[in-house]
């Protein structure tokens, strides 16, 4: 094979179709960083983006002989990565066990949230709107317990309700906010909310 820098993506892909591992390595090195950052922009969790990156390139390697890439390998690769990330988020949204696993990994430090400044601004804006959309009692319960850090007994006394009733309002508030974030943001915002407010 010629000097790697002189070989086009499509030529490398053709070599890879015929089982050339060196061609695969060159393509991996060429696109590793860009695909990782692209995945991270979607899933917001560095370790998950890294897992997906490996899955994407493994899919490319194992399925090369079945694919036709006639114009741009780059476009094909980014589309594959996007589909993989979206499919993963959809599976997490549908499967409570997968969502619990991600929340557990966040809580144990295996995964870290990779929000950029603009992501945090979007998350905070959505969270504010979600809280403002709550009925008064749920909103107050959430603010007292989760934002102001008051004890259940203290918050219940302020609201003039029983501790159990307060917990009901809080539980309904959390579920309402989570649903709002899912409907108006994405699954990662919803998971971040549960994690950051110690609700995992």
Polypeptide structure, described:
This protein is mainly α and 200 residues long. It is 76% helix and 0% strand. It has ten helices and no strands. The chain has helices at residues 9-17, 21-43, 46-63, 73-94, 96-108, 117-132, 136-147, 152-159, 163-184, 187-196. Helix 7 packs antiparallel against helix 8 (152-159). The radius of gyration is 23 Å and the shape is elongated. The N and C termini lie far apart (52 Å). The model has no long low-confidence stretch (mean pLDDT 82).
Structural descriptors:
mainly alpha, single chain, 200 residues
Task: Summarize the helices and strands and which ones pair or pack.
Elements: H1 9-17, H2 21-43, H3 46-63, H4 73-94, H5 96-108, H6 117-132, H7 136-147, H8 152-159, H9 163-184, H10 187-196
Helix pairs in contact: 1-2, 2-3, 2-4, 3-4, 4-5, 5-10, 6-9, 7-8, 7-9, 8-9, 9-10
**What characterizes the major β-sheet?**
none
Overall 3D geometry? elongated
Strand fraction equals under 5%
Counted beta strands: 0
**Which regions are unreliable across 5 or more consecutive residues at pLDDT < 50?**
none
Summed up, the helix count is 10
Distance between the termini: 52 Å
- Helical fraction equals over 70%
Rg, alpha carbons: 23 Å
Q: Which structural class best describes the helix and strand composition?
A: mainly alpha
Order of helices and strands: HHHHHHHHHH
Average pLDDT over all residues: 82
């Amino acid at each position: 094979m010629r000097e790697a820098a002189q070989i086009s993506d499509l030529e490398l892909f053709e070599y890879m179709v015929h089982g050339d591992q060196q061609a695969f390595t060159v393509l991996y090195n060429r696109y590793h960083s860009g695909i990782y950052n692209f995945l991270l922009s979607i899933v917001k969790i560095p370790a998950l983006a890294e897992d997906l990156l490996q899955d994407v390139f493994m899919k490319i390697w194992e399925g090369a002989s079945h694919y036709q890439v006639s114009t741009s390998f780059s476009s094909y690769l980014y589309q594959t990565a996007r589909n993989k990330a979206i499919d993963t988020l959809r599976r997490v949204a549908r499967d409570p066990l997968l969502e619990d696993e991600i929340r557990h990994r966040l809580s144990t430090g295996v995964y870290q949230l990779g929000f950029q400044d603009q992501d945090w601004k979007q998350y905070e804006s959505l969270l504010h709107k979600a809280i403002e959309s709550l009925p008064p009692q749920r909103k107050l319960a959430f603010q007292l317990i989760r934002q102001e850090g008051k004890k259940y007994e203290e918050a219940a006394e302020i609201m003039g309700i029983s501790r159990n009733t307060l917990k009901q309002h809080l539980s309904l508030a959390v579920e309402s906010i989570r649903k709002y974030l899912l409907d108006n943001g994405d699954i990662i915002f919803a998971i971040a909310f549960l994690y950051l407010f110690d609700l995992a």
